[in-house]
Amino acid sequence: MSFAREEKEGVATIKIEGSISIYEAAALREEFLFCINNYESLNLDLNGVTDCDIAGLQLIYSASKAAAKEGKKINVSGESLPVLDCLTNTGLNPREILSRNSR
After folding, report:
1. How far apart are CA 42 and CA 62, in angstroms?
2. Alpha helices in the chain (DSSP H)
3. Could you give the CA distance from residue 82 to residue 62 in angstroms, rounded to a whole number?
4. Which residues pair with 11 in a beta bridge?
């Protein structure tokens, strides 16, 4: 897994490549919290995600809750097939869960 942060006008965009799983959760959590604390909003580009597990989904959901608590937004774009499959396989509606992140 790798990720790159781009910054523009108070908005951070994180492009994630590779896996979002329990193994990457700690590094991504720190990056998400840094962005929530230091930017007005956070965009997550998941187009390059090649593998996702329930820990990855929980991380995205938790980040959205943390951002909302701070009055900030997380927008999710470019959901890859592995992210959508993970959501579907866990019985969750991808549109419902991912759209919650854009509050």
Report:
1. 13
2. 25-38, 54-69, 81-89, 94-100
3. 19
4. 8, 41
Count Cβ atoms below 10 Å from residue 87 Cβ, excluding itself: 21
Task: Give tens-digit pLDDT for 42-99.
Answer: 999 999 999 999 999 999 989 988 999 999 989 988 788 999 999 889 887 777 766 6
Distance CA 2, CA 44 (A): 13
Question: What count of Cα atoms within 13 Å lies in the side-chain half-sphere of residue 69?
Answer: 9
Q: Which domains does the chain have, with CATH numbers?
A: 2-100 (3.30.750.24)
Residues 40, 71: Cα–Cα separation, whole Å = 9
CA distance 78 to 71: 24
